[in-house]
């Protein structure tokens, strides 16, 4: 058995709060989020946030759209999703409840993480809908829960529709994102 894993430092939210730079904390392991995202990544992120926000506002939905805000999942796990929809008001500090919708915009440095670790984490945390947006391929994959609570993946051809906060439905066209 290799001895290396027992010597990997383990961190908590308290440690995380003192760090400078762009980091996430995955099961006690520090994960660098550098370099920062490129322009196309940010454009897609803001296009999605604008589409969600304007439609939710028009419906007077009790929801808020936030981008790149820390979600404290547990004492040893903190992630920073690209876009989330929270039912209810804006949190005073960080997100501490499961969002109604989470989206990650792929970049070359984080794509594998978004498709594996974060997908699995969001599934475990009960996120109802998780969207993975790929600016390079101009595609969107949606993971949404069925009636049995199981996540099913679906590729989006032209547009996708999501329902958040039980009563608010938003339709997003790929042409408005990419």
Question: Which SSEs are present, and which pair or pack?
Answer:
Blueprint: H1 13-16, E1 23-26, E2 29-32, H2 39-58, E3 63-67, E4 71-74, E5 77-79, E6 83-87, E7 101-105, H3 111-115, H4 117-124, E8 129-134, E9 139-145, E10 151-155, E11 159-164, E12 168-173
Parallel strand pairs: 7-8
Antiparallel strand pairs: 1-2, 3-6, 4-5, 6-7, 8-9, 9-10, 11-12
CATH class: Alpha Beta
Q: Strand share of the residues?
A: 25-35%
| CATH superfamily grouping | tt1808, chain A
Helices and strands, in order, run as HEEHEEEEEHHEEEEE
Shape, principal axes of CA atoms: globular
Cα Rg: 17 Å
Which segments are poorly predicted (pLDDT under 50) over 5 or more consecutive residues?
none
**Domains (count):** 1
Helix and strand composition category: alpha+beta
Ends distance: 47 Å
Q: Give a count of the beta strands, DSSP E runs of length 2 or more.
A: 12
| Major sheet attributes | 6 strands, mixed
